[in-house]
Amino acid sequence: MSSEQPHAAFTAAMETHSFPGILLDLDGTIVNSTDAIVKHWHELAKELGVDPNVILASSHGRRSIDTLQMYDPSKANWQYVSHVEGLIPQQYGRDAVEIPGAKDLLASLEASAARWAIVTSGTLALATGWLDVMKLSRPNLLVTAEDVTKGKPDPECYRLGKDRLDLTDQTALVVEDSPAGVRAGSQAGCKVIGLATTHDIAQLKSAGADWIVQDLSSVRLAGIDQASGQMRIEIRNSLRY
Fold first, then answer.
1. How far apart are CA 127 and CA 24, in angstroms?
2. pTM for this predicted structure
3. Hey, which residues are catalytic here?
């Protein structure tokens, strides 16, 4: 993973596109909790008797229950996973920071009549914990790890999000930071903005991101058509490619 993009040219002209709804990932997209998650997996790795770096190499964007299934199936149950994930914001909240632009974008979505959701590989306890600790707006719809049978890159989570927003046959917008999430959004029939916050640009390109930006400061809700419900999304300073 890398957020360093030294040769990238985020200089494309502003674009405005209309979408019926927007679905956002959480970790790496709204909140940068990398340091907290690293500490969490280091502690858990001691219990598992596994090198934490081996776990961290493949855990981002993956449900914890799927990761634990690989190393200790006895811990791969929702009671255990929800408990340990719910402790992360409490124990390591100071190690997390807002992705630039997240607070403003979420506040604008909450204040409008926009259809929006957070779709995350984390549990409900983890997702609500981070939103509360970071004092960020919470959508009416959260799709979390417990809601699906397969995690990202499987598109089930974003298809479910679209269904619950009544957008089943429409092209919604997904905002993601991981290649697995980008693939999931694309395969769910959405357009995808990739954030270059945690992974290399080449990985986001390969995954099929329609736009790549540095962070959420490049994404703005410009308004909503009251008749159609379509939201106008401005995308600024995207990558030229």
1. 12
2. 0.91
3. 25, 27
